[in-house]
Design goal:
elongated; 16-stranded mixed β-sheet; binds 2-acetamido-2-deoxy-beta-D-glucopyranose; alpha/beta; Leucine-rich repeat, LRR (right-handed beta-alpha superhelix); about 10% helix
Amino acid sequence: MAFWFLSALLIVGFLSKSNLVEAQLSDEAALLAIHRELSVPGWSDNGTDYCNWVRLKCGGANNSFVEMLDLSGLHLKGNATLISDLTRLKHLDLSGNSFTGPVPASFGDLSELQFLDLSLNRFVGRIPVEFGSLRGLKSLNVSNNLLVGEIPDELMMLERLEEFQVSGNGLNGSIPQWIGNLSNLRVFTAYENELVGEIPKGLGLVSELELLNLHSNKLEGKIPKEVFEKGKLKVLVLTQNRFTGEIPEEVGICSDLSSVRIGNNELVGAIPRAIGNVSGLTYFEADNNSLSGEIVAEFSKCSNLTLLNLAANGFAGAIPAELGQLMNLQELILSGNSLFGEVPKSFLGLGNLNKLDLSNNRLNGTIPKELCSMPRLQYLLLDQNSIRGEVPHEIGNCFQPSSWIIAFRARKA
Ligand SMILES: *[C@@H]1O[C@H](CO)[C@@H](O)[C@H](O)[C@H]1NC(C)=O
Ligand SMILES: *[C@@H]1O[C@H](CO)[C@@H](O)[C@H](O)[C@H]1NC(C)=O
Ligand SMILES: *[C@@H]1O[C@H](CO)[C@@H](O)[C@H](O)[C@H]1NC(C)=O
Ligand SMILES: *[C@@H]1O[C@H](CO)[C@@H](O)[C@H](O)[C@H]1NC(C)=O
Ligand SMILES: *[C@@H]1O[C@H](CO)[C@@H](O)[C@H](O)[C@H]1NC(C)=O
Ligand SMILES: *[C@@H]1O[C@H](CO)[C@@H](O)[C@H](O)[C@H]1NC(C)=O
Ligand SMILES: *[C@@H]1O[C@H](CO)[C@@H](O)[C@H](O)[C@H]1NC(C)=O
Ligand SMILES: *[C@@H]1O[C@H](CO)[C@@H](O)[C@H](O)[C@H]1NC(C)=O
Ligand SMILES: *[C@@H]1O[C@H](CO)[C@@H](O)[C@H](O)[C@H]1NC(C)=O
Ligand SMILES: *[C@@H]1O[C@H](CO)[C@@H](O)[C@H](O)[C@H]1NC(C)=O
């Protein structure tokens, strides 16, 4: 046992020495200084095999430069500025640490950088204008910090950007027009900031745009039809802003659009019938707007729909029986409208429906006792309608009372 241990030590010692000779690491001094400053767990002051240190990868001629540094999720504190001495970095992930103070402007000197994630720290101040020099950058994430000020115009030079994420800060000003000139952009998230103004129409020029999330800002104006025109959009989240105008008919061009969340705005008009074209639609949430007209039966063509929330709008008319074809539907929330007629019997076939909220409408008729046959239904809210009669005896018997909220007081006159 003792002999084996000794030989193992010798072998390890030998390997380290030979690798050092080969590596000729130029970033050695920088790494040692970074470790002295940040105390990276798993890095050893005296292990000389730097390229084998955890959370980094070397590259370049003779493997002599650090190209990848992933210090994510280590709760590190200290001065991150020293990292910019690793001048050949292509990939730098400092997300999920406890860095404070200004974002090091010297990261703008890392001319080979392609990926930079500084999210989930406590960086303050502005996004450094120096980041405009990072011409090779494909992904920039400064989300969830304490950044203020405007998105700097210098970033318009980042023509390779595919992902640009600045959410969860205190950024103000408007979304720059030049975002529409970033022709490789796939992901743009700026939610939970103080942004004002309109969505630049130019965003529609971004041919690759798949994810646009701008919720919880102070944005206004119309949802530009251009945003849908390239047809690649998959996720659109604009909840909790001050958007006005109608939902553009062009939404129907985006057959891969799976999630539309546009609640808590001031949208008006009818839902475009073209919504039936959006075959991949999974979530559609447009509650708390001033939408009107009928609830379009075309939703029934979106066979993957699991959530449809149109609550607190001005919808009128009967609930389309066709919605009973939506076999994947889990939540149907149509409360707070002016819907009338009866609860369609076709809903009884919705085997995955968990929540049905039709409260605060003008529905009449009675509660069908066949609701018993809906295996997943846990929440049924029918209060404030003109539904008459008793809760069918069968309902009380066939469900766990604890898993139910049944309310159907008559609507107050
Ligand atoms: C290596 O580092 C450890 C602690 O980090 C220390 O106790 C030890 O003396 C060092 N060895 C040498 C040879 O420097
Ligand atoms: C790589 O290592 C070889 C041999 O040690 C050396 O001659 C060469 O100059 C090195 N190249 C660079 C770019 O450092
Ligand atoms: C961090 O270190 C750099 C030099 O590496 C220095 O210029 C800067 O002032 C330091 N920042 C703080 C907040 O100490
Ligand atoms: C950007 O940062 C946010 C917050 O940490 C995170 O949710 C998101 O996944 C990150 N994006 C990428 C592409 O890493
Ligand atoms: C934006 O934020 C910066 C920094 O907090 C502030 O100086 C500036 O007045 C703000 N601008 C607007 C228009 O609110
Ligand atoms: C963005 O593109 C438009 C049209 O393609 C062009 O007119 C405009 O000058 C460009 N803006 C910048 C800042 O490059
Ligand atoms: C519906 O989709 C078809 C092809 O998938 C397309 O030609 C048509 O323009 C779309 N209609 C609308 C209103 O978006
Ligand atoms: C409705 O949306 C507005 C923003 O348009 C928001 O201020 C309000 O709190 C929302 N109401 C509810 C009940 O969510
Ligand atoms: C519905 O979802 C499934 C599973 O995610 C997917 O394979 C299918 O293509 C989707 N259907 C449509 C019409 O998008
Ligand atoms: C329910 O309302 C519809 C439309 O308002 C009406 O035509 C129908 O007669 C009503 N049914 C009952 C049972 O009151």
